[in-house]
Prior knowledge:
Blueprint: E1 6-8, H1 9-16, H2 20-28, E2 36-37, E3 43-46, H3 49-61, H4 66-74, H5 78-118, E4 125-129, E5 132-138, H6 144-160, E6 168-174, H7 175-179, E7 188-193, E8 203-205, E9 208-216, H8 223-235, E10 239-240, E11 243-250, E12 262-271
Antiparallel strand pairs: 1-3, 2-3, 4-9, 5-7, 5-8, 6-7, 6-11, 9-12, 10-12, 11-12
Helix pairs in contact: 1-2
Amino acid sequence: MDRHEYMTTGEFAAAKGVSKDTLFHYDDIGLFCPEKVSENGYRLYSIYQLETFDTIRMLRDLGMPLKEIRDILDNRSPECVMRVFAEREHQIDIQIEKLRSMKQWLSRRREKIASAEKTDFSEVTMQKFPERYYLYGHVTDGSEKSLYRKTSELIAEFKNSGMRSDYDVAYIQYEDNVAKANFTEYDNTILLMDERPLKGKYQTLPGGKYIVAYHVGHWINIGQAYWRLLQYKEENHLKTEKFYIERCVVDNFIAKKIDDYVNEVAVRIVDE
């Protein structure tokens, strides 16, 4: 035996920057075994096995399970490698798209939090909103339990459809209820999005100038924001749509208590 062609476990591990335990484990599962075992029980690896180990490490870096790598090595052929690589490339494309969407979601969520931190929630203002889109869920009894349940169903529908954009939980309140001061009666919950969904049933919220007021605290007292908004509307002689959008601006992402939640009440101006 030419000793220059073989390396001990320690030498091989040092050369490849791995632990001896890794080599022992690979040997135990039959993935990567030493070429020889000496009479005194020492594992000896051929220098020509360095290339094979590099292949294993490359496949491992691609996220392949050890069992799959072993199967590839046991059945190596151009056809086998091409098929496996094509499958892995497809999986990586899916992961890249998912990561890209996650990064976009985080960026937009940060923008919303930064905007909320700079907003004076005591003011009533006019703001310009772009066209937005929403998923709609009807609620029969309007109870808080039903609203939360329907919201959860919409979120599940959103995720199952493959949509990755950010959304806000919101509600549509109607002029009839506002006129009667029934500010906490709802028959719906919606998921409001800035991006048009690529699929699924959605509705469109028109863009334009909106009167905007905020309420800090439990939504049961949101009538306070409506009174301030209606007063602003009257003082400025503005005409508006027949429905209002209540959007959660500060929720449990950044607030521990519901008393610290912030809801935005907005209604589109139709005639300035």
